[in-house]
Every structure is written in structure tokens, then in C-alpha cells.
Specification:
Helix content is 43%, strand content 9%. By secondary structure, it is α/β, with parallel strands linked by helices. The strands form 2 sheets. It has a 5-stranded parallel β-sheet, with helices on both faces. Strands 6-7 form a two-stranded antiparallel ribbon. Helix 1 packs across helix 10 and helix 7 packs antiparallel against helix 8.
Length: 368
């Protein structure tokens, strides 16, 4: 594996940390490099969590920053270049400039690299796939660890002969016979590539992995440069509960900002916390999370408010100054209590419910 780099991005959230723990425990032979894209706008709890993870891994997590050499932190540097235009769900320049481009251009460069991405087995999304041909994404927590671009190439109709030969050589008995029927069956609306993929996985995940790995030898991708790959026999599927088990059993634990904090409103008790890693002013936050930031990290909330000027705001329909008016906070808490009644009596149930939101929705977990 000396000619191919193996990299894993740590977002500061639960999933990417759990993946690092899982691979360290089960595949210590992988020469993994860990990195963290530091925007300069993270909570202190994020840095502490990464420090705790480093203790378990026994290896440093490389801190990377965009706009190196700038007199200000990465976010402020690019905010100036964009004329004060704050990022939003419609214009996520922060993701591109603070995370993707520095990772692809400066950390990996033109070296062949396999990027390990923490998309859980219970998530229905693809995750980060680089447009650079020298970076290949792998998803170890999923039943199908291969990225969509790889599957499209390997299972394409032009590869029927190749796949038939590979399944003939790498399998036998019922698996071989059923696989050959699936490979040579014409695709249709009822039998598309996605269904073919799932049916091949149903036959044998490890056999499918070995077939794909062999097929990639004829495709220009980083995996083609490997003589072997230890995850080919991996059939684990790690869901949300599995992520929490990995964090707890390793002793690393969850990031502190996930811990639910009790609040009281009109005689009712509820719990709130942060549901994702990343910048403290992330525009993907729920309203209740903005209230959490205002009440638990007032200095960070004040800094977020300072960015709202010249008509730009973090939230489309209101400014942070409007959000923290007493009557507005009361309204947000009332809505939160009404929509999540279970959190009034069970903070653990609320924690799991809130953490079920995908990290990858926000920019913090672009590689998770």
C-alpha cells in the first residue's frame, strides 16, 4: 500500500470519529492518515473531542487550514473575498473553499489516495465523492462500500463479459450461477442498476467486493494500485446505535456538545443540545440550537451576530438579533417542546432523536 495514501477526515462529530475507531480496532494494518479541516470557527468542545480521539488512536490528527499565510482565520479570509456574503444552503462557498479544495489540492494533491467516508449503514445518501480521478471514496460502514461512480463503471453493460469471468473465477456453486444470471439479465425499469447491485450483495458481500476489486484493475483509480485490500471480507453494517457503541466502548465518548442540557419553559422541562459538528454559526442549525448557542455560549453567539450586516443573515427569515428577543425565544422553546414531547421526560431519548439527524447535511462532515 506504499504507493497509495489512505486518508480519513475527522469532522469533530460522532460518525467520522467512530469510523476512525472502527478501522483502528479492526484493520490496524491500514496506514491511515487522519486530518481535520479547521475553519477557525469551531467550538472548544470540538477541539477537545479531537484531542480525546488522538489518545485512543495513538496518532495525531493533522490540522489543516485553507488560506495558509493569511493574517486572519480561514473563514474570515474568504468572507472578505466574497464581499461579506455569508454562506447559506444555496451558496455553500464555505464547504468548497474551507474544506474540499484545501483537502484535494494541498493535502492529497496528485497522489493516489483512498478517502474513508463515514456514511452510516442506516443513511440513504452517497456522501463525498471527489471529482479528481486520483481520490477514491470508500464507505466502510455500509453494506455497499463502493461509491456510486465505481458501481456505475463496474456494473455497466460494457463489462458483462468481464464480470462473468470474474464471478466464474472467484465464486462457485449457487452464488456463481445466480450472479451470472443477474449480470447477463438486461436492465429495465423494473431491473435497474440499483436493484442489480442489491441482488448481487444479497448473494455474497465479500464475493461482490472481490469482483469489484478485481474489475478496478482495468479502471484508472487509486484502488487499481493495490495488490490487496483488507476490507474486502468486511460485511459489517454500522448504524447509529453501532456508532454510539464504538464511541462508548472505546472510552472516547461523545462530543460534549451532544450532551442534552435541561431548560424550563412555562413550568415544563425540556432538553436541548447541538446536533452536529462544525462552525458554531452553521446555517443548518435548528432554531432551538441557536437558542442553545445563545444561552450556553453567549460569546460565540455574539460573534455570530457580528457577521450579520449589510443585509446578510444566517437565517433567511430573521436575524439573530430578532431571534433572541424574549418572546421569540419563548416561542421557539414552546414549539420545540410541542414537537418533541418525549424530551420532557427522557433526555436520553431526546439525545438519540436529535442525533439521528445526519452530520452530512452540514458542511462539517463533508467527508463523513
Amino acid at each position: 500500500m506504499n504507493n497509495v495514501r489512505h486518508v480519513l477526515g475527522i469532522s469533530g462529530g460522532k460518525d467520522s470519529a467512530a469510523l476512525a475507531i472502527y478501522l483502528r480496532m479492526n484493520y490496524p494494518e491500514l496506514p491511515l492518515e487522519y486530518y481535520f479541516m479547521d475553519t477557525g470557527k469551531e467550538l472548544d468542545e470540538t477541539y477537545q473531542f479531537i484531542n480525546d480521539l488522538e489518545v485512543f488512536l495513538g496518532k495525531k490528527v493533522t490540522r489543516l487550514e485553507a488560506a495558509q499565510g493569511s493574517p486572519v482565520d480561514p473563514f474570515d479570509h474568504y468572507l472578505t473575498l466574497y464581499g461579506g456574503y455569508l454562506p447559506s444552503a444555496q451558496a455553500r462557498w464555505c464547504t468548497r473553499k474551507l474544506k474540499l479544495e484545501p483537502f484535494e489540492q494541498f493535502f492529497v494533491g496528485d497522489t493516489p489516495a483512498i478517502s474513508y467516508v463515514a456514511i452510516r449503514g442506516d443513511e440513504d445518501r452517497e456522501g463525498y465523492i471527489s471529482h479528481k480521478s486520483n481520490i477514491q471514496s470508500i464507505f466502510p460502514f455500509r453494506r455497499n462500500m463502493w461509491s456510486k461512480d465505481v458501481i456505475s463503471k463496474v456494473l455497466g453493460s460494457q463489462n458483462r463479459v468481464l464480470l462473468s469471468d470474474l464471478y466464474t473465477n472467484l465464486s462457485d456453486g449457487d452464488v456463481r450461477d445466480a450472479a451470472l444470471q443477474l449480470i447477463n439479465r438486461p436492465e429495465s425499469v423494473q431491473f435497474n442498476q440499483g436493484r442489480k447491485l442489491n441482488m448481487l450483495l444479497d448473494l455474497s458481500i465479500s464475493t461482490f467486493n472481490r469482483v469489484v476489486f478485481a474489475a478496478l484493475k482495468s479502471i484508472d483509480c487509486p484502488m487499481a494500485g493495490l495488490d490487496s485490500f483488507p476490507l474486502l471480507d468486511n460485511e459489517d453494517v454500522i448504524d447509529r446505535d453501532g456508532v454510539f457503541r464504538l464511541l462508548d466502548e472505546s472510552g472516547v465518548g461523545k462530543p460534549k456538545y451532544y450532551e442534552p442540557i435541561e431548560f424550563e419553559h412555562n413550568g415544563q422541562k425540556g432538553f436541548y443540545n447541538r446536533s452536529r459538528s462544525g462552525c458554531y454559526f452553521c446555517f443548518f442549525q435548528q432554531k432551538i440550537e441557536w437558542v442553545w448557542l445563545y444561552e450556553q455560549h453567549p460569546e460565540r453567539f455574539a460573534q455570530a451576530m457580528d457577521y450579520e450586516k449589510d443585509g446578510f443573515s444566517w437565517i433567511d427569515e430573521e436575524t439573530l438579533a430578532e431571534l433572541i428577543q424574549p418572546e421569540r425565544i419563548a416561542e421557539i422553546k414552546e414549539t420545540h417542546l410541542r414537537s418533541s414531547p418525549q424530551n420532557r421526560t427522557s433526555k436520553s431519548a431526546y439525545l438519540l432523536d436529535l442525533l439521528d439527524e445526519s452530520e452530512g447535511v452540514g458542511c462539517a462532515a463533508c467527508f463523513i
